[in-house]
Specification:
With 246 residues, the chain is mainly alpha-helical. Helix content is 72%, strand content 5%. A 3-stranded mixed β-sheet has the order 1-3-2. The longest helix is centred in the C-terminal third of the chain and has 41 residues. The radius of gyration is 22 Å and the shape is elongated. The chain binds zinc ion. Zinc ion binds next to helix 6 and helix 8.
């Protein structure tokens, strides 16, 4: 998206309407960036708050993950430690749960909840949860769309080839669709995690209240990412329409 600010000179419509060098739709991109930064700061601060709260069970993230997986009858998923913070994820191809340094060996409420959330994805994989299957199918299309949408869109504007901006917008929609289908996958993994932690008495009711806040803050980062992409989509549509009027 930053490419656009560098080629403002090409936009006759903006040049005439708003003065050279200022693209007003850039504000939409900035708003999207602010939303994602706020969500990211919020998840980090909530995680750090509950990373200081030791769970009564004394279980580490890795131990809790093993217990959660076994309680769901899953014995074929490996648990690995990886570097970084909040880099935790489940890899369905290798059936591996990768827990970050701040989760793997920590016995905090935050670590247990994040580990259980990743187990939620392993459970989704095992039961072939519909939105997860659809999301996995969309990965190549979404990658293709997010890589090529802006170059194709910009080439269309620069060389005045009318079908190309629309092609760029359609490609961008593929990436937005992927982010949209990510929401039920993430919310469902968290709700599965909290239910299993409660049913297996891994966390107390009081601890679960904190865990819920951590997972809700994490889910909001996906909502912010989607909102940011929708703002970018709006920006593309405004730019294409502005060009059509020239
Ligand atoms: Zn997740």
């Amino acid at each position: 998206m930053n490419l656009l600010s560098g080629i403002n000179g090409y936009y006759h419509g903006f040049g005439r309407g708003y003065g050279w060098g200022f693209d007003p739709t850039y504000l939409l991109a900035i708003l999207g960036l602010v939303l994602t930064l706020i969500a990211s700061a919020r998840v980090k601060s909530t995680f750090h708050t509950y990373a200081k709260v030791r769970s009564a069970s004394g279980l580490t993230g890795a131990m809790a993950a093993e217990r959660v997986l076994h309680s769901c009858g899953i014995y074929n998923v490996g648990i690995e430690r990886i570097s970084g913070e909040l880099t935790d994820h489940y890899d369905p191809r290798s059936k591996t749960l990768r827990l970050s340094e701040s989760t793997y060996g920590s016995n905090s409420v935050a670590a247990i909840c994040v580990a259980a959330h990743e187990c939620g994805h392993a459970v989704q994989d095992q039961v072939q949860y519909g939105p997860l299957v659809l999301r996995s199918t969309l990965v190549p299309l979404a990658n293709f769309g997010s890589t090529l949408s802006w170059p194709i869109f910009l080439a269309g504007l620069i060389f005045s080839m009318r079908p190309l901006p629309m092609g760029g917008i359609i490609l961008f929609c593929l990436a937005v669709l992927f982010q949209l289908i990510t929401l039920p996958v993430e919310f469902n993994a968290s709700s599965r995690a909290l239910k299993i932690l409660e049913q297996n008495h891994i966390l107390s009711d009081h601890e679960l209240t904190g865990g819920r806040k951590v997972l809700r803050a994490a889910a909001l980062t996906y909502v912010a990412a989607l909102a940011s992409s929708l703002l970018q989509l709006l920006r593309l549509i405004i730019l294409a329409r502005g060009r059509d009027r020239d």
